[in-house]
Amino acid sequence: MPNREVTAVVSAEQERILRNPKFQELVRTRSGFAWTLAALMLAIYLGFILLVAFARDLMAMKVGGGVTSLGIVLGLVVIVSAFALTGIYVQRANSRFDELTNDLRKEIS
Fold first, then answer.
1. Which residue ranges run through the membrane (predicted)?
2. Higher pLDDT, 17 or 2
3. Distance between CA atoms of 52 and 79, rounded to whole angstroms?
4. Which CA distances in Å does 52 have to 12, 39, 55, 61, 79?
5. CA dist., res. 73 & res. 69, Å (int)
6. 90, exposed or middle or buried, with CB in 10 Å at 0-12, 13-18, 19+?
7. Which of 52, 88, 97, 109 has CA atoms 20 to 30 A from the CA of 1?
8. How far apart are CA 104 and CA 30, in angstroms?
9. Which residue range forms the structural domain that includes residue 57?
């Protein structure tokens, strides 16, 4: 069973961090950015699904002189956009979010 004094210290330390304005900024910034990218990916995917469901002729249109349809190309765009949005998030996490985290660490140390 954990020592109550240690638990009280940890809780007080956690409370101090949770109330820190820099921590709140980090959480708000990171969450807002993540939700924005998630909404964008959802819109891309939903748009593709709606095109598949309601624009069959458009999606069946051949691209170039080959057998590849516009649906295949747009499907690849959906996949590539997922990788691109992930890369955008990682870039932001490695720059801005790490910067905010380091500032927070310096302040609470």
1. 32-55, 67-90
2. 17
3. 15
4. 54, 20, 6, 12, 15
5. 7
6. exposed
7. 109
8. 14
9. 21-108
Please name the residue that has the structure tokens 């900024």: 25
The first and second tokens of residue 66, run together, are 């080959």
Packing angle between helix 21-54 and helix 70-92, nearest 10 degrees? 180
Residue 81 lies in a domain: yes
Percent of residues, the chain, with pLDDT higher than 70: 91
Which residue type sits at 28? R
Q: Which two tokens stand for residue 15?
A: 């409370």
Which of the residue ranges 23-27, 76-80, 81-85 would you say has the lowest mean pLDDT? 23-27
Q: How far is CA 71 from the centre of its chain?
A: 26
Number of folded domains that form the chain: 1
Contact 88, 40 (CB under 8 A): no
Let me know: does 19 contact 104? Beta carbons within 8 Å.
no
Domain membership of residue 5 (yes or no) is no
- The residue length of the chain stands at 109
One-letter amino acid of 83:
F
Q: Which residues lie across from 62 on neighbouring strands?
A: 69
